[in-house]
Amino acid sequence: MTQSPTRSGTVYLVGAGPGDPDLLTLRAARLLMRAEVVVHDGLVDPSILAMAPRTARMISVAKSRARHTLQQDEINALLVREALEGHDVIRLKGGDPFVFGRGGEEAEACHAAGVAVEVVPGISAAMGAAAAAQIPLTHRENASIVSFVAGQCKGLSEQNWAGLAGVGRTLVIYMGIATSEAIAEKLIADGLSPDMPLAVIENAARPTMRVLRGQLAGLAALVADNKVKSPALIVIGEVTGRGDMMELKQVLEAVQ
């Protein structure tokens, strides 16, 4: 018979930020560099995974719209099992664990099993993408309210999105690329102007980052024509024009 461990391990729910390893918190980097077991999402950049020791056991639980390596209940059980076997587990997530990262569900599963949990926040995808594109999510002249929504939620057409975007507001949509046409139709039906400016930010904070700008009515075409793929965020609101001004200034300065 195998002997039971003298202690249970700790599960660390760690935010990996938007992709650039330089944007990790010091706490996240230190934990990763001494990791025993790393359970990571598919969107975590390989350069961040490479920070773990060669001896670390790397377990991918990558998810996509069409396929999940493990279902969420199975991931919860995996974290608990590894910790109860005495391992410290780094649960590495893109962005922040508690912003559309299902970190709350994983923490609850660990608490129910008597497993210690520590949450290490990361720069959220919305914050990282907006900063990389130099789009201020709030601005005294344009927006004092920011809303975050998931674009893959069930029953999209039945939800009331009125007031989430418009004058004085910024709307950031996670996981909305595959449903971009339905999102635009929904927002317009709920009263938002078809001319509302927006930006689609793909691969934020990475060398392959793209910032595509357009208007709400043309969102689906913008995504399709440019073959946008995840990870990508949609930012809707007047603030999306601010990044344009900053980029133009940078171009002019470079020419001079």
TrEMBL record:
Pathway: Porphyrin-containing compound metabolism; siroheme biosynthesis; precorrin-2 from uroporphyrinogen III: step 1/1; Cofactor biosynthesis; adenosylcobalamin biosynthesis; precorrin-2 from uroporphyrinogen III: step 1/1
Enzyme class: transferase
UniProt-listed InterPro entries: 4pyrrol_Mease, 4pyrrol_Methylase_sf, 4pyrrole_Mease_sub1, 4pyrrole_Mease_sub2, CobA/CysG_C, Siro_Cobalamin_biosynth, Uropor_MeTrfase_CS
Transmembrane segments: none
Gene3D superfamilies, A to Z: Cobalt-precorrin-4 Transmethylase, Domain 1, Methyltransferase, Cobalt-precorrin-4 Transmethylase, Domain 2
Domain Tetrapyrrole methylase: 10-219
Enzyme Commission (EC) number: 2.1.1.107
Keyword field: Cobalamin biosynthesis, Methyltransferase, Porphyrin biosynthesis, S-adenosyl-L-methionine, Transferase
Record bears the keyword Transferase: yes
Pfam assignment, any one: TP_methylase
Alphabetical list of SUPFAM superfamilies matching this protein: Tetrapyrrole methylase
GO biological process: cobalamin biosynthetic process; methylation; siroheme biosynthetic process
A molecular function GO annotation: uroporphyrin-III C-methyltransferase activity
The family this protein is said to belong to: Belongs to the precorrin methyltransferase family.
Name this polypeptide is given: uroporphyrinogen-III C-methyltransferase
Species: Novosphingobium olei
Source organism phylogeny: Bacteria, Pseudomonadati, Pseudomonadota, Alphaproteobacteria, Sphingomonadales
